[in-house]
Amino acid sequence: MDEPGIHQSFAEALRFPGYYGNNWDALVDCLDDLCAEVTGGSGIVGVIQAADRFLDADHFPLLVSVLRQGAERANSSLDLDGFPLDRPAIAEHFVFEFRAFDPGRGVRLVEQPDLILTQGGRLRRRGARSRGMALRVGPPRRPRPAPAPTNSSPALD
What we know:
The protein is an alpha+beta fold and 157 residues long. The chain has one domain (3-137). Helix content is 30%, strand content 21%. It is built from five helices and four strands. The protein has helices at 3-13, 24-32, 36-39, 60-74, 103-110; strands at 44-48, 92-98, 115-125, 128-137. Strands 1-2-4-3 form a four-stranded mixed beta sheet.
């Protein structure tokens, strides 16, 4: 798929506004600005099916980077200057679904620290199952905070 096709697909699927600029910066901005009308207030997981067709495209690493940037910004409740946004964070993740994929090649193509590759798992989408390779693109997962220590000493009266 060429770059104009990518922009058109995202604009249609995610109902971008009419002023969407059909460029990579505009894609990051619109992914950051997805509203509750599109996400249903609960966020999105975008599945890019048959992603094998992107592997040899010069823009594949850029597409992965743009989706990661958009997801990272949407998942934040702060703006780029560190100030609170007037909207809650939106859960946003993207999965590239491949039929045949070499994980080593994928890492070499995109080389990003927050890239997760899984192999042989089942990806579920609306009742369908798919086997193969998945490339998850999204912000780094934050570790869960450790539970607060409890005071096990007896209470004194």
